[in-house]
Amino acid sequence: MNTIFSKIIAGEIPSYKIAENELFYAFLDIFPMVEGHVLVVPKTEVNKFFDVPDAWMKEWLVFAKPIAKAIEAAFPCDRCGISVIGLEVPHAHMHIVPINSSDDLNFTRPKLKLSPEELKEIQQKILDNL
Question: Is 91 assigned a catalytic role?
């Protein structure tokens, strides 16, 4: 398997990187629900979220926590929500989304279409708060 996320992690496809460590990679969703929508993926391909090794589960949330705090500082919202759907790409991933209500995590809603300049600005806002 060589998913689009693996290609992003390898640098074969450009991304708006937010953070990475030895296990995880975080980047902007280029078709976000709202500004500040970030994807966090394990660097190793695992299709389903609950097939991720147990030892990584805690580390995944610990890695995502400062990113969520940075998003909350960068964008007006009540909090960051987490969603794990995993149907679009066969590579486990977590969505971190600034929200004000549970409906803000409704993935059937239309996605934003942002320019590269807008995405870079969003990326910088989050990085400035990390």
Answer: no
